[in-house]
What does this fold into?
Amino acid sequence: MTDTTPVITQTHVHVHDGELCGLERDAVVLTAEERRWGRRRVKTSFGRELVLALPTGSVLTPGDILYIGAGWYVAIDAATEPVLAITPRSRDEALRVAFEVGNRHFTLAIDGERLLVPDDTAMEQLLIRLDVPWRRDHRVFMPVGAGHRHD
It folds into this structure.
């Protein structure tokens, strides 16, 4: 018996206008961290299995098409995940938070006037120490600088 599970070796498929018309949309819903894991098996929303064998350092980008099959395709969707939502009182405070988060090698996202960081004990302790307003939330987390590519 042969394994017919599609093996994905690129982070996205180039799609031409109208190419997906009439095809069923399926998705792989992943957190920001999961979008960085390039070697593993994943299941789509409809239960289809794919094998990711992406080059080291690859990051999957929400909205990209990952695979096109016979009558269907798979897109990357971002999962909602636990975050700490920070509301800086000034530009200087925002820059200080961004510096301190980056200095600890954590990722940071910008959501309008708020900064988002992973809901992590170390981040919570940092925000308490910096005395900045924050609260727990569930949001799509799109870290600054993650998923950048040169097409």
